[in-house]
Structures are given as structure tokens and as C-alpha cells.
Amino acid sequence: MFPATTDEVSRVVAMAHREDIPVVGRGSGTGLSGGAIASLGGIQVVLTRMKAILEIDQENRLAVVEPGVINLDLDKAAREHGMRYAPDPSSQRACSLGGNVAENAGGPHCLAYGVTTNHVLGMEVVLEDGSVVWLGGKARETPGYDLRGVFVGSEGTFGLATKIIVRLLPVPESVSTMLGTFPDIDSACTAVSSIIGQGVVPAAMEMIDSVSIKAILNVTKDVFPADVGSVLLVEVEGLREEVEETRGGIEAAMYDTGAIEVKTATDPAERERLWQARKGAFGALGTLAPNYYLVDAVVPRTRLAEMLAEVDRIAKAHDLMVANVFHAGDGNLHPCIAFDERVPGTLERVMHAGGEMLEV
Ligand SMILES: Cc1cc2nc3c(=O)[nH]c(=O)nc-3n(C[C@H](O)[C@H](O)[C@H](O)COP(=O)(O)OP(=O)(O)OC[C@H]3O[C@@H](n4cnc5c(N)ncnc54)[C@H](O)[C@@H]3O)c2cc1C
In a mutational test of the pocket of ligand 1, which residue from 91, 295, 326 has the highest number of ligand atoms less than 8 Å from its CB? Predict the structure, then answer.
């Protein structure tokens, strides 16, 4: 069902509770763990009609939204008031705030600003029996247990969020995006540790390997250099002088660890093009194979190179193509196995390989 109000959600959930019918919430359906699929049947509560931005409060730097609001739409609306919503999953053009809350979504810019839980102040929630409660609120601190914190990341199992209060941040004075090109993935991994080792926390630091670059170039011509081992996308932001100084340090660290070239984009259109390419990477893999299986895991940053070598070894052992595009700054790997399920036996090999990668 497609409710339009909290009351409608509450009445349906109460009825389902009385009749012992399972209820599954659904935002935009981009979740990668299948939480929005009603595998046991029952009622699917699809929250896409509840998509109003109810309030943008500039003085208190917060917004009140309905759960179906699309992540990027909230950010755009906040920017009209000189603010922004920081968590930016790569799916931000499609995913909903309700889904972000349930999955405690991260994204490229969460390296510096933290994931969804660090930006949600409170929620109106419809519980299993249909009752409506508030967890947290507009204040930065609330007395008692942090039930807001328990709810964020609970994958839709504790109830349905029907209103969400989020923190907004001021838009930084200056932003600079660097594109470092590397001959291989190892040197780019060393650059990541070296940059963080300087005590700098960039706003974002994303790595894209050669297979992903090939796919991206099929969709967006010339956005990255072809025939390189990997690229590292690093963004710094803050006060103008601070950004300039940090940028210099990062550029030096990239060259010291073997970068072939480091370019800087300061023009908003150029930056947007780079980020669009990065955020569209999984979609672009469709130009290499009709299916993909995404493995999602976090490893200590200093062991990225070691882990990527293992990913490569496992893929080769199963005769599979793997693409890596990931949040390097916080060691969040996304080995993505591209395959064609129509080839008999392939899906089984993919599942085995994915399992082995997660075990490592
Ligand atoms: C190309 C691509 C890139 C992605 N990049 C990232 C990334 O960078 N970072 C990241 O963290 N994730 C990423 N994801 C995963 C996904 O987009 C996020 O988990 C997102 O938060 C899911 O939002 P959704 O609206 O699509 O939720 P859905 O898929 O509809 O639902 C996800 C879960 O949330 C529950 N749910 C939905 N709405 C509510 C609600 N109102 N109240 C309670 N529970 C609810 C559902 O029951 C389900 O369990 C990516 C996915 C894709 C396809």
C-alpha cells in the first residue's frame, strides 16, 4: 500500500498486527541487502508518496522531512538556504531518507562528516502495534536512552519512520577536487594511508580501479584517463586558505607515492562531472556485463592493498571479472563481480567467490 500520512501508516500497521500479517517498509528499493523485499509475503508499505520537505530551519540548521524524500532533493533544498545535507550515498539521486535511516547509509562525504546516524536528530515512528512515538527530537541532546540511535540502522525491523529531523551543515567557502592517476592499485592505496597519516581528513577519498574506469569511460567520455591502473578522487573543503594548504599537501603525498599525474578541479561543473562519473560507476558496469554482484565490507585502511590483492586472486581463481570502486578513506570496499547469469554455472561461481571475499 502507498500511504500518504502517518495516520494511514499507523492504521494499516495496527490492522496487520491484529491479523498477524507481516509488514515490510519500502523507500526507493535501492537497498543492497534486500530488506525492502517482502520475502514472507504480507503488506508492503511503500513510503514514496510521503515526500514532503516539511520544514527547513536555517537558524537551528535542521530540516524536518517525510521518509520518501529523495536524499539529493533534500540537499538541493538545503542549498537554497546556504546549507547542505552531508550524507551522500552514491545512490543519492534515487534513495529515500527513510531508507537511509533504516540502513544508516554512508557515502563518499561521510569520511569527514560521519554517516546518517550522526545527522539524524529524531524521528516520528510507527511501531509494530500501530502506535506512534517520537524518538529524539529537534534538540541536540535528549534525556534517557538513545532510542533514536537504536532505530537508525535497524533495517526496518523496529518500526516505520514517518517523519525525520536531520541536521544541516553550512556550505563550505571553498571546495577543491583532486584527481590522482596511478599506475596500479597498490600505489593508490599507499597514497590513501599517506594522506591520512598527515593528519588530514579529506571530505571524501574514493578509489576507482582500471576495470571500473573502463566501464565509466563507456558512459562518460574522457572523464578519467584511459589505460591507467587506478584513480583516486580526493575532495577537500573549508576556508579558502585552509583548502589551498591542504590541497598542496595531498598533491605532494600523491606524487611521493607514485602518482603519474594529479589534476585539480575547482570549477563546479567539472567537479560535478567527476562525481557523477564516480556515483554512476555501478550503473556503468552494465556496459561490461548484464549482471553484477556487489560485496560490501570494511577493512582497516592500512590493509587495503593486501585485501584488494586477495579479491583479485579469488576472482581469477573463479575465472570472474571484478571491478573495485570504493570509499578508500574509510576502508569500505565494494568488490563488484560483473557476470552474465545466462551462462550456466556462473551464478554459483559468483556466490562462492563473493563468500570467499567476505571471509578474507
Ligand atoms: C548504485 C547504488 C549505490 C549505492 N551507494 C551506497 C552508498 O554509497 N552508501 C550506502 O550506505 N548505501 C548505498 N547504496 C545502498 C542503498 O541505496 C542505501 O542503503 C539506501 O539508504 C536505501 O534507501 P532506499 O530508500 O532505497 O531504501 P529501500 O531499499 O527501499 O529499503 C531499505 C531498508 O529500509 C527499510 N525502510 C525503508 N523506508 C523505511 C522507513 N521509512 N522506516 C523504516 N524502515 C524503512 C526497508 O524496509 C528496508 O529494510 C547504494 C545502492 C545502489 C543501488
Answer: 91
